[in-house]
């Protein structure tokens, strides 16, 4: 496995993969000994990789995504000039071999990047599929004026309202953001799926790579209304997480923080990814910024099958 990781590290340096696929990200989120990668090579050329988080408990063997990761799954390198039938045959060959190289697990969960649309090889291997959605602003580099024009009237109104109440500033205090996230989850009567130490560790790793930024919205009394954590690679800026103080929800501060995040992203990146949501109110908020809906596939498999009802809710398999 370590040899694969060395090979994979070189592969990532030569190819443009999402931040969630990067070895340093997997080290930070999964732990250095808790992830691996399947690599399909033919004629001394790599055509596909599939990194994964692997947890081997006493009873349960779990294969999936580490915490904080939006997606993780197959990544293919296509030969140039393929016809459609050749492309489909290539995908079948590469994906089938990658699946066969995965370690055996009782529960397997893969959230493929939205560029992966041919999931039949997974279905033929017994995986169930569910369509999820992420939202992306594409071709944003140096396009601030066009991005502003693309905002809905309601979003533009909310931004103007927030500008009269709060100002946006950078912060390096992850505890301030975590407090906002806790308040948001508490309002929804949900438990935060990570703790402050895990978030601090991720922030430290991203900061070392110069790939993150915290933006906070504060009023004149220094009250923090909303905050966001952004992460990025050269191509894409991701809205990783955010939160708001429920006492200041009417200030519309989150709209302003998000807009400032998009403006920042347009200064160097080609895309802004709002990350996925299936929640109607969040979808409406994101849509106001002009985000394009992009479907992606969640692929899951439980073995033996009679265990599926036991793990369906725990691992959000549907």
Structure characterization notes:
There is one protein chain. By secondary structure, the protein is of the alpha+beta class. The chain has 2 domains: 2-132 and 297-311, Aminopeptidase, CATH 3.40.630; 140-269, Gcn5-related N-acetyltransferase (GNAT) (Aminopeptidase, 3-Layer(aba) Sandwich). The protein is 36% helix and 27% strand. It contains 11 helices and 12 strands. It has helices at 2-14, 23-30, 84-101, 120-124, 144-149, 153-163, 174-187, 196-208, 253-265, 280-287, 308-311, and strands at residues 35-42, 45-56, 61-64, 75-76, 107-111, 128-138, 167-171, 212-218, 224-232, 236-244, 271-273, 292-302. Strands 1, 2, 3, 4, 5, 6, 7, 8, 9, 10, 11 and 12 form a 12-stranded mixed β-sheet that branches. Strand 10, helix 9 and strand 11 (271-273) form a beta-alpha-beta unit. Helix 2 runs antiparallel to helix 8 (196-208) and helix 6 packs across helix 9. The chain is globular.
